[in-house]
User: Which sequence fits this backbone?
């Protein structure tokens, strides 16, 4: 694998320093960081930009409430977000503040230039304004009289304003969205074209007069530049663009290879931003990728909704890599993901503590115990073949996913190797081989495992950097600065060291209690469960990470026939299914509406988790759950392979 010298310019949105940071904010930046680190590992000359979006009426108001100047107000919060990124190991190369003097000057120049060339003109604005979103809307764009972005109240607005000729660029922007890969995932393209461009793209009000906390229009200081024109410009002003001249950085890194963001700000990046760049005669970014929302308690995690999880509280308790891993693994590409304390904790326990932690701990312990840590390549036998193939193909698989910005699937691939390595231990049984002494075969088994750990550990570096480093340290290695050597046999001998648990096992009930989440079991039941688990672990020390057959049979699975199905009102992901389960009829609400129409489901036989506690979903009592198989964006229902009566047990 050759080191490439290409540049890669990646950005995340610049954040409003208007209040507390929450876990949802961390998602985009950690996601961007994983991509930036992966590209660096591939030899790209990466520039990863993030920053803060500090102007606007909202911030002016907050500062006033806090009794400080806007600049004092944002300074405190900017320091806080920088410390958050540091705690999360975010390796940004540039941090821009829209209050940076260079940025403000450049925005003034950009505005003036567009005015002088006739792309900005002065007129009168009459319509609606959403203060939290800092967006103007026409009456027809409102949804139920409210802001179409956030659903909040809007105010009448009438003022003299400068306008950007967005309508002039509508055909070119439409072309960009419909005939290139500019916007991903594709589902967003229709939304933008139908709801905004084809609905009639009007010229955009790009100055305000009602407040002063913004970049003043140089030639008309009663106006400040619209906060989104100010904010979007950061992607070029951070490279030294000043409206006219091309800086060296600009020549080197522009156009951006990737603008990463959540779905609610796609409109600005897919319509206004390319139109501004077209007007400036600059090349267009190669791609924008919109991810979904991290949800909590059924809604987008958001400070204004009050449903936030504070990363500053989770970090000291669980560590940066637990948070990074959860965010990167739990969110499917482009779709929303729901946070719960329990899914967070079980993900950490299952993947990081059990699968990864046990593999590394067990292997290093056996290396130490059987060979004093000195492991050398032996002769591979047929039994090693599948493992060697998996080690050799891992980089290609991870790269394929990271090239399309899917860290969740990339991580899945890495954990497939980790899983395979754990199974290989159980099949090869080094402890049995050791009964005949430190044979070449035993050495080879441990060598295969150590190679798997090296390759998986190296590929984990972009996602969980300090864990990757710890794993490599146990092989007495440091992170490589390139992607060479990610195949079997590249290191012929090792001197490994045993290491402490990578992730301590979390007591989910205890942690949930510490998080303020109600305990799920009575103390007695907990005690019993604790005892049982202790016993189980003593009996089968090599089987951590597995469940036993009794655990499995607690879940009652039955075949069910879909006899009716309809959409759930105001929930675009949910279908309400009526199921026949033997003599019984059940109602189940399932999140499959993006993959199946109601008509398609009727008549299908599916697998129902029949003893799941009923719970209300969108006002409908859901009596169980149906099983699906999912792979990235794809999701299919699980069905019996041949005809069988509904009500039949799945066992
Ligand atoms: N300042 C604008 C962006 C300007 S970019 C030129 C802005 N700031 S924000 O602070 O409100 O949000 C920044 C980003 O935080 C969002 O685009 C999104 O990437 C991320 N998120 C905020 N809440 C989120 C979730 N609950 N889930 C996932 N991401 C979320 O918008």
Assistant:
């Amino acid at each position: 694998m050759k080191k490439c010298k290409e540049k890669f310019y990646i950005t995340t949105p610049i954040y409003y320093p208007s209040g507390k940071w929450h876990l949802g904010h961390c998602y985009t930046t950690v996601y961007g960081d994983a991509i930036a680190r992966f590209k660096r590992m591939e030899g790209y000359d990466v520039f990863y930009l993030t920053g803060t979006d500090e102007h606007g009426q909202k911030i002016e108001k907050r500062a006033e409430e806090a009794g400080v100047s806007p600049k004092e107000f944002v300074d405190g919060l900017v320091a806080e977000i920088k410390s958050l990124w540091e705690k999360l190991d975010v390796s940004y190369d540039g941090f821009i503040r829209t209050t940076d003097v260079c940025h403000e000057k450049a925005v003034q120049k950009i505005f003036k230039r567009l005015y002088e060339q006739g792309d900005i003109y002065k007129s009168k604005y009459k319509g609606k304004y959403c203060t939290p979103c800092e967006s103007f809307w026409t009456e027809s764009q409102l949804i139920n009289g409210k802001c179409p972005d956030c659903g909040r109240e809007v105010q009448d607005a009438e003022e003299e304003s400068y306008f950007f000729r967005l309508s002039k660029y509508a055909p070119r922007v439409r072309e960009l969205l419909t005939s290139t890969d500019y916007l991903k995932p594709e589902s967003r393209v229709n939304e933008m074209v139908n709801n905004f461009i084809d609905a009639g793209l009007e010229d955009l009000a790009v100055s305000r007069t009602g407040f002063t906390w913004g970049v003043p229009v140089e030639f008309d200081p009663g106006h400040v530049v619209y906060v989104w024109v100010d904010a979007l410009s950061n992607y070029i002003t951070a490279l030294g663009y000043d409206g006219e001249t091309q800086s060296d950085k600009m020549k080197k890194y522009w156009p951006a290879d990737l603008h990463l963001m959540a779905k609610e700000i796609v409109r600005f990046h897919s319509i206004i931003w390319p139109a501004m760049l077209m007007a400036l005669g600059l090349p267009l970014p190669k791609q924008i990728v919109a991810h979904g929302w991290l949800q909590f308690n059924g809604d987008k995690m958001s400070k204004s909704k009050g449903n936030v999880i504070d990363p500053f509280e989770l970090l000291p308790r669980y560590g940066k890599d637990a948070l990074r891993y959860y965010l990167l693994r739990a969110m499917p590409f482009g779709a929303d993901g729901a946070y719960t304390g329990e899914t967070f904790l079980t993900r950490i326990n299952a993947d990081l503590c059990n699968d990864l932690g046990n593999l590394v701990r067990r292997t290093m312990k056996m290396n130490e115990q059987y060979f004093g840590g000195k492991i050398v390549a032996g002769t591979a036998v047929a039994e090693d073949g599948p493992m060697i193939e998996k080690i050799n193909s891992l980089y290609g698989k991870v790269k394929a996913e990271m090239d399309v910005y899917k860290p969740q699937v990339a991580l899945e691939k890495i954990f497939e190797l980790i899983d395979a390595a754990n199974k290989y231990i159980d099949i090869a049984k080094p402890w049995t081989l050791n009964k005949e002494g430190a044979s070449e075969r035993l050495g080879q088994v441990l060598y295969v495992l150590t190679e798997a750990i090296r390759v998986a550990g190296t590929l984990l570096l972009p996602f969980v950097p300090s864990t990757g480093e710890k794993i490599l340290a146990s092989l007495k290695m440091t992170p490589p600065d390139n992607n060479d050597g990610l195949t079997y046999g590249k290191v012929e001998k090792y001197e490994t060291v045993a290491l402490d648990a990578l992730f301590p096992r979390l007591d989910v009930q205890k942690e949930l209690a510490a998080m303020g989440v109600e305990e799920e079991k009575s103390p007695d039941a907990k005690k019993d469960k604790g005892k049982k688990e202790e016993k189980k672990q003593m009996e089968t020390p090599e089987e951590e990470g597995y469940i036993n057959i009794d655990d499995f049979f607690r879940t009652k699975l039955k075949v069910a026939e879909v006899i009716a199905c309809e959409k759930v009102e105001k929930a675009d992901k949910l279908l309400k299914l009526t199921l026949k389960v033997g003599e019984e009829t059940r109602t189940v609400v399932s999140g499959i509406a993006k993959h199946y129409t109601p008509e398609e489901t009727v008549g299908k036989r599916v697998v129902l988790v029949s003893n799941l506690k009923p719970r209300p979903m969108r006002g409908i009592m859901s009596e169980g759950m149906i099983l699906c198989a999912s792979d990235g964006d794809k999701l299919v229902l699980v069905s019996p392979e041949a005809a069988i009566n509904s009500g039949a047990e799945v066992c």
User: Anything to note?
Assistant: Residues 13-16, 24-25, 27-28, 53, 231-232, 234, 261-262, 265, 293-294, 300-302 surround 5'-O-[(L-methionyl)-sulphamoyl]adenosine (CB under 6 Å).
